[in-house]
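Can't paste images in this forum, so I'm doing it all in text. The chain is below; anyone willing to post the predicted structure tokens underneath?
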Amino acid sequence: MARARERVTHSAARPWERTGDRDRPIGVRCTLASVLVAALAAWSLTSCDPGDDGTTPQSAPRSGALPTTVAESCARSYDEPGLRAQAFAVDATVDSVRRHGRRVDLHVTEWFRGGSANSGDSLTLDGLGDPASEGASELGVPYAVGTRLLVSGQYAADGSRVVWHCGYTRYWSRDDDAAWRDAFGSTDPPLPDGLVAVPYVPFGASDREIVGLLRAAGLEADVPDVDWPHYVIGVDPPAGTVVPLGSKVQVQIGDG
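Text version of the structure:
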């Protein structure tokens, strides 16, 4: 069954028209205070996040270029001609992180170029960068299970995919999704104005990550009050369901 796609407006400035994109901080960081206790590495986190009292975590959607520790000089700044020159481009969500971040499995929402026409494909990539490095989010990492990305790059001589950074791999947003659809000439039929499809949510993601994911799609997350730790086991309505923008989505939590 063809997967429904979100319709997005094109009134916002294209990402390559925004200044300082590559080095722009992403999201809102909350203050973290670490306290050394005796000789053990215990700490206390002080957060400005209202979610600390058991309410829905207030995770701001990530946006802009994916920060990375991959050693790479940016010979070309992010722009529309550069994006159109990419050999592959995909909208996908992180399903798992392996080999200390050197290999990432993703769930494909849409191939813009260089893949099959099917949503739900599994894609494995190397070179997204080290998720344990300093990232620009309150999670302290640039990506995790549940992070939705727009990834592009070229093919190596052996046929493997080489991920491009420098703005060409980005956090998914409605504006960037619209820009990539224009750049690659996406033929997927858009949804009518005011409607959106509930995004794919991987099992085991953190509740904070999924709150940000849903907000990026224009939806409101409803997270139950359960004891820490939180991990997501699903959403209701399920992924792919077409709902009005601003709808509330129940995040189903496993606790333990």
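Residues 1-11, 19-55, 134-139 have pLDDT under 50 and may be disordered. The first strand starts at residue 88 and ends at 98.
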